[in-house]
Amino acid sequence: MARVILETRGLTKHYGGVHALEDADFILHEGEHVAVVGDNGAGKSTFVRQVTAVEQRSAGEIFFDGQQVAFSGPLEAREAGIETVFQTLALADDLDVPSNLFLGRELFRWRFGPFSWLDRKTMRDRTMEALKTTAVKIPNVDNPIRNMSGGQRQCVSIARTAAFASKLVIMDEPTAALGVQETAQVENIIRGLKERGIPMILISHNLRQVFDLVDRIVVFRRGRIVASLRKEETDGNDIVSYITGVKGGEVNA
Fold it and tell me: Would the pTM count as exceeding 0.70?
């Protein structure tokens, strides 16, 4: 059995009287790609926000790479090796592509007290390498992000995640607003992560995409995990039955 990269036990999040996530037991193994699916409000994004410490959980435990963790925020989660593409993208509109790829992890030629000099050439060179590796095509990387299309912005965010991926990648609806060509591009990036052995959690409403890209499908409904199925042991109709409540009760993932 492959090593466990991420495990949650009893992960719970309440917003006042609203139980957005309840007792989520989840396991992700080394090299495994898992889809998290469910209707709007099922708890999928809430689950990711607890794992990445965008929000602090109400209860439960998180184990990452063999250690129990309590990240203080998303930066600490990223430093531990979790790269995430959120629906909000978290890009700086006034900065160019290299500055966005290295946002928060800039390279410097030298630093002396409050004074520093960015190594823009190295950051630009590495950006071009990252875009080439992920097959993301940006006509002019020196343009501010605000001048790019929604699809280009999404691809920049995904290229950043893929370029720095170390231990775990999480993608929250990465192709929801993309056209056919851009969607295919993102799916190829995901396949590249699989070839590199990097585990991934994919949140998606696109069942065709889910069955094409992942090893296992975890279904959330009303804040609870109701199914965890190998993709070869299920089909789209089965998954929809769990999503809508025709099938399923709480299960351990």
Answer: yes
DSSP 8-state code for residue 4: E
Q: Identify any residues that bridge with 201 across adjacent strands, giving them in sequence order.
A: 34, 170
- The domains of the chain, with CATH numbers, are 4-244 (3.40.50.300)
DSSP codes of every residue in 178-211: --HHHHHHHHHHHHHHHHTT--EEEE-S-HHHHH
Q: b/e per residue, 160-197, with b = 16+ CB within 10 A?
A: bbbbebeebbbbbbbbeebeeebbebbbebbeebbeee
Encode pLDDT of 11-67 as tens digits: 999 998 899 999 999 999 999 999 999 999 899 999 999 999 999 999 999 999 999
Question: Which residue shows structure tokens 């280009």?
Answer: 152
CB atoms within 10 A of CB 229: 18
Bridge partners, residue 200, by sequence = 33, 169
18 bridge partner residues = 15
